[in-house]
Amino acid sequence: MALFLAIFLLLLGNSLLSTLLILRGIAEGFSGKFLGVLTSVYFLGAFIATLMASKMIKRMGHIRCFTFCTALLGCCTLAYALVVSPYAWLIIRFATGFGVFAMYTVVESWLNGQTQDDYRSRVFSIYTLINLLAVAASQQLLLIDNATGYTLFIVASLLVTAAIMPISWTRLQQPIVDVDMPSMSIRKVFDAAPVAVTGCLVSGLIMGPFWGLTPLFVSGLGYTENELAAFISLSILGGALLQYPVGRWSDYMDRRRVILFTFILGSLLALAMALSAQFYVVERGLITGLSAIFCGLVLAIYPISVVHLVERINKDHLVAGSSCLLMIYGLGSFVGPTIAGFTLEYMGAGALPTYYLFVLAIFSVVLSIQLLRSRIVEVPEDHESHYVAMVRTSSNVLPMHPESEEVLDPAEEHRSESHEPNRA
Predict the structure, then answer these.
(1) For the residues 235-241, what does the mean pLDDT come to?
(2) pLDDT tens digit string along 207-226?
(3) Distance (Å, rounded) from C-alpha 339 to C-alpha 36?
(4) What is the pLDDT of residue 134?
(5) Could you tell me the fold of the domain covering 182-400?
(6) Which of 114-123, 341-350, 351-360, 408-417 is most confident?
(7) CATH, domain range 1-180
(8) For the chain, what is the HEC assignment?
């Protein structure tokens, strides 16, 4: 519960901050292309954190590493309001992405150390649910004040700083960190499951701009801050409810064709959103409903891709292969917001769903070619794995995946060693 509470507070504050920055940037007159670059810089910091966090934890320990990153994030959150400058924000945003994903790594590696095989699916499901609920609930905090003041920045800083309290209070044994995890090259992953690589890349290209630029898109349609908060919350909650039926459908069909279906249907929904933004902007319910369905489809692409890869490789390579897919997702999340930000700058509010349409249409063709070239015929009855909704945070969450065969209880091993008699 201490670890779950810490990640909930972290996500509550950080998700509020992500939306708040876009709204404040709009109020300060920052361009759409700059806000897109700002989002990309965040994911660049996140990518660097995934490379360095395990070594930081090994050097500092879980609690001190979490404390360090909490202090960094709390300072960054307040610095945005104190120094309203595009160049300063780029540096601060990079540090924010680094701190957030380092904290993800701390909590997730610690959860791995406490998760036993019998409870793996349960812990994994609760963790995913907490992520989605925190992101959706955070948008309602926008109702406290407007983005031009200091109040919301202080609230976000309070929340992320409060995340350190359950971590510091807990008496849980800190796990041993293994920095020598097996690796798997992108080439091998692509040879094993090219559709999974395509799916994760597209998921990053879509969800990166969705998380970072949706406030800019909605504000361009004339929504108030209250309407914006409702739009994002309903989109995320509706998407969370929808992705499970889509994922379960992939358990009974060729997963590659399900991914292609999500690309095609997502293209049609993006087209409908673009047309609604252009001609039916007053129909708030229509655009929100389309966004919720679209979000549900796109959220399902990444976990379906992971499960598809699991069925193509040995299960003892799940963490290495899935980490590679997470890296590809991160690449898409880094590139996507910059491209989408430029389209928003020059094409107006309807450009974001137009960008979604362009990406999904292009990769629908790519995926169709991959399926035509593939000589492997997948038989649904032979599926050995089942769909599991997943979060895209750090690679340390992957050993909790129900299909993983990693040893998940290094803390228990550490405790048993500590009780052995001194043989010296």
Answers:
(1) 81
(2) 888 888 888 888 888 888 78
(3) 7
(4) 87
(5) Growth Hormone; Chain: A; (1.20.1250)
(6) 351-360
(7) 1.20.1250.20
(8) CHHHHHHHHHHHHHHHHHHHHHHHHHHCCCCHHHHHHHHHHHHHHHHHHHHHHHHHHHHHCHHHHHHHHHHHHHHHHHHHHHCCCHHHHHHHHHHHHHHHHHHHHHHHHHHHHHCCHHHHHHHHHHHHHHHHHHHHHHHHHHHHCCCCCCHHHHHHHHHHHHCHHHHHHCCCCCCCCCCCCCCCCHHHHHHHCHHHHHHHHHHHHHHHHHHHHHHHHHHHCCCCHHHHHHHHHHHHHHHHHHHHHHHHHHCCCCHHHHHHHHHHHHHHHHHHHHHHHHHCCCCHHHHHHHHHHHHHHHHHHHHHHHHHHHCCCCHHHHHHHHHHHHHHHHHHHHHHHHHHHHHHHHHCCCHHHHHHHHHHHHHHHHHHHHHHHCCCCCCHHHCCCCCCCCCCCCHHHHHHCCCCCCCCCHHHHHHHHHCCCCCC
CATH 1.20.1250.20 domain residues, the chain: 1-180, 182-400
Question: pTM for this one?
Answer: 0.79
Across 155-169, 183-197, 331-345, 405-419, least confident range:
405-419
> pLDDT (tens digit, 9 = 90+) per residue, 51-109?
787 788 888 888 888 889 999 999 999 999 999 899 999 999 999 999 988 888 787 77
